[in-house]
Write the C-alpha cells for this entry.
Amino acid sequence: MKKILFVFVTVLASIASMAQQEPLYSQYTFNTFILNPAVAGSNDYIPVRLGIRRQWTGIADGPITQVMSLHSRIGQSNKIGVGGVIVHDQYGPLSKSGIRGAFAYTVNPAAETKFAFGLSLSCYQLMVDESNLNIINPNDAVINGEKESVIIPDADFGMFVHNEHLFAGFSATQLIQYPLNLSNDLRKQLPHFYLLGGYRFKISESTDLEPSLLFKKNGPMPVQLDINARAIFNKNYWCGLSYRTQDAASLMIGMKYNHFLIGYAFDYTLSKLTSINNGTHELMLGFNLQQKPRSSTPIL
C-alpha cells in the first residue's frame, strides 16, 4: 500500500479525534433507521429514504454525503424486520462508500409499546483518488495519479422502543474496529454510540410538538448533544430547530403529500469554521410503499 493512502487514513484518524468518522445528519428523526438497525420493520409500510448533505459550502471539496435506505417487516408474525443502507461519503480526494444490511426482531409485536433489537453487517471501501490531489512536487514518485483503496467490514447493534407518542433507542456502530495496517502503522475504526429519545405531544387538534434529544459519543471525544424541537401541523407539515453542541444550529422544514415526503435542513456553523464556510444544506426525500395507517406508528 503506497504512502499516500497511509497519509490520508492518518488524516482521517486525526479528524476522528475532533469529530465523527461516520457521516453526520441533521434530519435523523426523518429516518432513524440510518442510526439504529433495530428500527427495521417498525412501520406498517416500507419507508424509502434518499438524502444528500453538502457540508460547509464555500469550502472547496467540502464533505458531501449521499444515502439511500429502506426497511420492511417480513413474515406473518410481525416480529422480523430487514433493511439496507447504501452510503457514499466524500471529502476531497478521500471517500468512503458501502452497503449495510440490517436484521431486527420485535419481542412484543402485539403490545402498544413495542421493543426491538437489531444487528447490521456492513462492508465499506475507503478510497483515495490521487488524480484529485493538488501536487506540490510533480516529480514525487509516491504519487502516480492512481486510486488506492482498502475494504472495511463492520457491524452495528441497536435497541429501539416506540409507541404512538414515544420513540427511544440506543445503538453502537463500528463495533469490529477493523485494523488498517498501512505502512506498518496500525489504525482502526472507532466505535460510535448513539442514544436517541423523543416524545410527541398533542397541542391542539391540528398541531403536535415533538422534542427530542440525541447523545453521541465516539472514541476519546466528549459527548455531543443534539437538542431538537419540531412542530407538526395537520400531520403533513413540519418545521423545527436543532442545536448541536460544539458544532451548529439547524433550521428544518418539511411536508408530506400522500405517500411522498420531503425535508430540508440548513446548518449554521457555530464553531471556528464559521468564518470560512456558508453553512450546510441537507435534503431528504421519502416515499412510503404499501402504506397502511396505524395509530401506534409515527407519520415518519
About this structure: The radius of gyration is 20 Å. The chain has one domain: 3-289.
